[in-house]
Design a protein that fits this description.
- This protein has helices spanning about 55-60, 110-115, 115-120, 125-145, 185-195, 230-250, 255-260, 265, 280-285, 300-305, 360-370, 380-385, 400-410, and strands at about 15-25, 30-35, 40-45, 65-75, 85-95, 150, 155, 170, 175-180, 195-205, 215-225, 275, 315, 340-345, 350-355, 395-400.
- The radius of gyration is 26 Å and the shape is elongated.
- Helix 4 (about 125-145) packs across helix 6 (about 230-250) and helix 4 packs across helix 13 (about 400-410).
- By secondary structure, it is of the alpha+beta class.
- The model has no long low-confidence stretch (mean pLDDT about 95).
- An eight-stranded mixed beta sheet has the order 6-10-11-16-15-14-13-12, with helices on both faces.
- About 30% of the residues lie in helices and about 25% in strands.
- Bound molecules: 4-amino-1,4-dioxobutan-2-aminium adenosine-5'-monophosphate and magnesium ion.
- Magnesium ion binds near residues 342, 351 and 354.
- 4-amino-1,4-dioxobutan-2-aminium adenosine-5'-monophosphate binds near residues 205, 352, 354, 397 and 399.
Length: about 425
């Protein structure tokens, strides 16, 4: 049994391919069948005079997504997709697919999401998810090459990881449990064991907003480094993001073409990335007429305004304390702020990374927990990390779907995860 991706090794031979029918055309004397086997697309040519009547008749009955086994001679043909053509000598229908719901016409996005289990087969979806898989592999390769140890964090947790507003709660044998918003607190605990660590997995936020960049279940990679300060943290982020983009450009050229992505802007993504402080960002926004006030977090509109005339990703660092999570380290140069950064990317995609140096002082951390009204008991173990050998450390979280949406140029993150979970969507 041959695979389409290997056809160049079989020129002049008779091979058998198995796969799904993408489409058929021509029923006079010559007919064509476009076959997809998951490794590629091949055009198969059927000549009536050279085939048993039963095969010719079976071809006429084929509809999209039928499964067939096609035997034929492999020929080079520069015009054919993939560069090869199959001169069919035999064909067998293995499964039918009458009334396949997704037709080659415009469907509404709700219809497509209701049929996500089938929509995955469409060319744009295949391309987007292949870029996602490449990005995930690039993440593991980059971190492995730099001696990071992957540490898997729990999904069921007893404490708020980021903010109280977006928790999914569940009953845990009579106790209250939450689905993890982040793995960060747990991998901080693994830092003294391995120095450089990361977790990679699904995270959950009961986001009540329907925007193009929010999912309720999304995937995040979170590296954490002992003895790294905020500056070193940003340097790691810019190298990491540049590597991921470069890998996608290098290995997913065909997919980006299917997605009609203009890659010229991605070619520019090389370290270092420009940096501005939150305070400078607010001044810039105000000077352009925005009513943003110092002290509140930047929203999607602010981020859009900041990025409107920028081609490179931008770090915005040192946000006001009250706008950010409890674990971020107070900025000694300006205690109203914390040592953190958001990485904003161009073309309307906004924040793809949130990172910070962590508060390593026991008393300040306890104060922050109290200030935010969080129950200290749930963080006793986390505070232990400051009691027993505290150390400066920093880390960040990169959202997979937002990063892949940016790289592929897709408008909405929901198409860059196989089965999106949104406020109004749990099916399929
Ligand atoms: O900025 P966030 O909330 O940071 C953290 O969770 C930290 N604990 C990370 C760390 O320092 N280890 O989230 C990080 C990233 C965002 O920049 C964004 O890319 C993504 O996660 N993200 C979402 N993606 C899709 N849907 C959502 N609802 C998201 N919320 C955050
Ligand atoms: Mg954030």
């Amino acid at each position: 049994m041959a695979e389409i991706r290997q056809l160049s090794q079989h020129v002049g031979e008779n091979v058998t391919l198995r796969g799904w029918v993408e489409g058929t055309r021509g029923h006079g004397k010559v007919a064509f069948l476009v076959l997809r086997d998951g490794t590629g697309i091949a055009q198969c040519v059927l000549v009536k005079s050279q085939l048993p009547e039963s095969v010719w008749d079976a071809h006429a009955e084929l509809t999209p997504e039928c499964v067939v086994a096609v035997s034929g001679d492999v020929r080079e043909d520069a015009r054919a997709p993939g560069g090869h053509e199959i001169g069919v000598t035999h064909m067998e229908v293995l499964a039918t697919a009458a009334d396949y719901p997704i037709q080659p016409k415009e469907h509404g996005v709700d219809f497509l999401l209701d049929h996500r289990h089938l929509w995955l087969r469409s060319s744009q979806q295949r391309a987007g998810l292949r870029v996602r898989a490449e990005v995930e592999q690039a993440i593991h390769d980059f971190l492995y090459d730099r001696d990071f140890v992957r540490v898997d964090a729990p999904i069921l947790t007893g404490a708020v990881g980021e903010h109280a507003g977006t928790l999914f709660e569940t009953d845990y044998f009579g106790e209250r449990a939450y689905l993890a918003q982040t793995g960060q607190l747990y991998i901080e605990a693994a830092c003294p064991a391995f120095r450089r660590v990361y977790c990679f997995g699904p995270t959950f936020r009961a986001e009540k907003s329907k925007t193009r960049r929010h999912l309720t279940e999304f995937w995040m990679v979170e590296p954490e480094v002992a003895f790294a300060d905020s500056d070193e943290n940003m340097r790691l982020q810019e190298e990491f993001v540049s590597y991921i983009v470069e890998r996608a450009l290098e290995r997913c050229g065909d997919d980006l073409e299917v997605l009609e992505r203009d890659t010229s802007k991605l070619e520019l993504v090389k370290p270092p990335f420009p940096r501005i402080s939150y305070t400078e960002a607010v001044e810039e926004l105000q000077s352009r007429g925005s009513e943003v006030e110092w002290g509140r977090d930047l929203g999607a509109t602010d981020e859009g305004d900041l990025m409107a005339e920028r081609d490179l990703p931008l770090f915005v660092h040192d946000y006001p304390k009250q706008a950010k999570a409890f674990y971020m380290k107070e900025n000694p140069a300006d205690p109203r702020t914390v040592l953190c950064d958001d990485l904003l990317v161009p073309e309307g995609y906004g924040e793809v990374i949130g990172g910070s140096q962590r508060e390593d002082d026991l008393d300040r951390l306890r104060e922050r927990i109290a200030e935010q009204g969080l129950p200290e008991a749930a963080y006793a173990w986390y505070l232990d990390l400051r009691r027993f050998g505290t150390f400066p450390h920093s880390g960040f979280g990169l959202g997979i779907e937002r990063t892949v949406a940016w790289i592929t140029g897709k408008h909405h993150v929901r198409e860059l995860i196989p089965f999106p979970r949104l406020m109004n969507r749990l099916y399929p």
